[in-house]
Design brief:
Length: 415
């Protein structure tokens, strides 16, 4: 294989003015952490990265690059000396390797960032395409409709040749936009929302409201397993997860609130708790998987009544997404099979038969007076169980009948 390097491009990070340096530094760090343990040599430049493959498996490198937000595209490249005769020879060798029966016409594009080079871009293009034509009898030049393009980049350090340009994850380097608190259930939507937030540069911590033993410990395990998948996109492959003991509030709701307002008020409680935790954890926003119209609590009227308990910024990356599009992303990030496992969580036990689709703020406030929710919220936040989960965590919670707090306590005492 003539290609021995991968050229990584940063996309529109270059548009970010003063932040540019910080973004590039973050991207360099992300790539370094994802490449850890691989036999590659990385050349960090201010506007791109070259990964020299040495004898490393190309597929593995690409797999890991696809977890790095902020990379716009990459190409397999070969590097050669800037002598025009060496460039011509390398171009011919490359074309011989990549051309097959379906490829008849080619085109050469040259970009010259080394302005002191003796030949101009057009002259290089002509010299190289003439040489390839003369020595590769099956090929002709077609500048309007080529089957393949040969790109030549003449830079200060060397010349680079390539003919692929593969789209990468895009977005901004995770963490450069600050940190957000993801409300993570065990469903399909919230991991996708978390992925999209990370893609856009937001580092995440997760909050999960758990009602064990009212709900099964497996539903908490599902959260752990989902976080392990999402951690592949996180800085250092790690994400903090905060399990909020929600059973007491859950029971109070069932005892005190009319059934039709149960979910509305449950979600108002979640938002109140998430706001407190976000402030504590220096998270600049709350993120969730809500999508307009999906369920009774996600009509615009419901969202108004629920959202009125906080003035914290709420990111809803999926607010206008179709469920099928969400499922496609869920599959792409390898969360779908986990998300559809049928364990109940606090939103799926005791679902009211007729939840309000147009709940009113004053009514919700009146119902909330029936119990001392503020004390319960304080207690829940004080008793949060936090744990850092990495891609290769072997955290197992299959201890039937136990509460999350007990399991986490056991894990801590083993360490
Ligand atoms: P998902 O939306 O993730 O598929 P779901 O459908 O069970 O899960 P919804 O009832 O649609 O959840 O809730 C909307 C959003 O509220 C979720 O996307 C998630 O962000 C948040 N949420 C729901 N339940 C919980 C929970 N137990 N812990 C943390 N966040 C939750
Ligand atoms: Mg949902």
């Amino acid at each position: 294989m003539i290609y021995d390097r991968i050229l990584v491009r940063f996309g529109d990070l270059t548009l970010k003015g003063k932040n540019q340096k910080e973004f590039i530094k973050a991207l360099h760090k992300l790539v370094a952490s994802k490449m850890e343990g691989l036999n590659v040599e990385i050349d960090y430049q201010h506007d791109r990265i070259y990964i020299h493959l040495l004898d490393e498996n190309q597929e593995e490198v690409i797999k890991r690059l696809n977890y790095v937000s902020g990379i716009s595209s990459y190409s397999f490249v070969c590097k050669c000396d800037k002598d025009i005769n060496v460039i011509k020879e390398t171009a011919l060798k490359l074309m011989k390797e990549v051309v097959n029966d379906t490829i008849k016409a080619f085109k050469v594009n040259t970009r010259r960032t080394d302005k002191n080079y003796a030949l101009r871009s057009m002259e290089i293009t002509k010299a190289v395409s003439g040489y390839v034509l003369a020595n590769h009898k099956l090929l002709k030049v077609d500048v309007h409709n080529p089957d393949i393009e040969l790109n030549i980049e003449l830079r200060n350090d060397a010349c680079y040749l390539y003919n692929t340009n593969i789209r990468a994850m895009g977005g901004y380097p995770v963490g450069t936009l600050g940190k957000g608190l993801l409300m993570l259930s065990g469903g399909i939507d919230s991991p996708v929302a978390g992925y999209l937030a990370m893609k856009q540069g937001v580092e995440i911590e997760c909050i999960h409201f758990e009602s064990t033993p009212l709900t099964s410990i497996e539903s908490a395990q599902k959260v752990v397993d989902l976080v392990k998948k999402m951690a592949k996109y996180a800085p250092n492959n790690k994400i903090n997860v905060h399990f909020i003991p929600f059973k007491e509030i859950h029971m109070a709701l069932l005892d005190n609130v009319p059934e039709s307002y149960n979910i509305t008020i449950m979600r108002r409680m979640m938002y109140r708790i998430a706001t407190k935790l976000a402030l504590k954890r220096n998270c600049l926003c709350i993120i969730n998987g809500e999508s307009v119209g999906q369920v009774a609590s996600q009509t615009l009227r419901s969202m108004n009544t629920i959202n009125s308990v906080t003035n914290y910024p709420i990111l809803r990356p999926l607010c206008t997404y179709d469920k099928l599009d969400i499922i496609n992303i869920s599959k792409k990030i390898d969360c779908y099979d986990l998300s559809i496992k049928p364990f109940e969580d606090c939103c799926t036990v005791y679902v009211p038969k007729a939840p309000a689709t147009a709940p009113k703020i004053d009514k919700a406030e009146a119902y909330e007076k029936a119990f001392d929710y503020e004390a319960m919220i304080e207690k829940a936040v004080d008793n949060v169980n936090s744990i850092c989960i990495s891609v290769d965590s072997d955290l197992d919670l299959p201890l039937m009948g136990l509460e999350v707090s007990e399991v986490i306590e056991m894990i801590r005492s083993k360490k």
